[in-house]
């Protein structure tokens, strides 16, 4: 029973972190800003500095969801099929 409650709490926490609202505490940026901006420029568009943080937040969300699948499958290794 305790494991089920812990999983529900984890899912709720992940759902909150994956929302559109910005987190109160800033997280480390997970993307290379210069590479992202270069890619966007290569497609003929411009990239604001706020977009880099939004991309990083989206990546955190995707990783959180993938890690939930890892735990659900009773593994400790993140694999491509989890993403």
Overall description:
This protein is an all-alpha fold and 83 residues long. 60% of the residues lie in helices and 0% in strands. Helix 1 packs antiparallel against helix 3. The longest helix has 24 residues, at 49-72. The chain is elongated.
Summarize the structure.
This protein is mainly alpha-helical and 83 residues long.
Brief descriptors of the model:
about 80 residues, about 0% strand, 3 helices, mainly alpha
Q: Counting H and I runs of at least 4 residues, what is the number of helices?
A: 3
The main sheet comes to: none
Silhouette? elongated
**Strand portion:** under 5%
Question: What structural class do you assign from the helix and strand content?
Answer: mainly alpha
Number of strands: 0
Rg estimate, integer Å = 16 Å
Determine the N-to-C terminus distance.
28 Å
Multimerization state: single chain
Spans where pLDDT lies below 50 across 5 or more residues: none
Helicity range: 55-70%
Mean pLDDT: 81
Along the chain, the helix and strand elements come as HHH
């Amino acid at each position: 029973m305790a494991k089920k409650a812990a999983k529900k709490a984890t899912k709720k926490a992940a759902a909150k972190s994956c929302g559109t609202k910005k987190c109160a505490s800033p997280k480390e940026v997970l993307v290379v800003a210069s590479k992202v901006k270069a890619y966007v420029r290569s497609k003929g568009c411009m990239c604001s500095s706020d977009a880099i943080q939004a991309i990083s937040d989206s990546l955190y969300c995707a990783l959180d969801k993938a890690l939930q699948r890892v735990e659900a499958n009773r593994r400790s290794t993140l694999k491509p099929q989890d993403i």
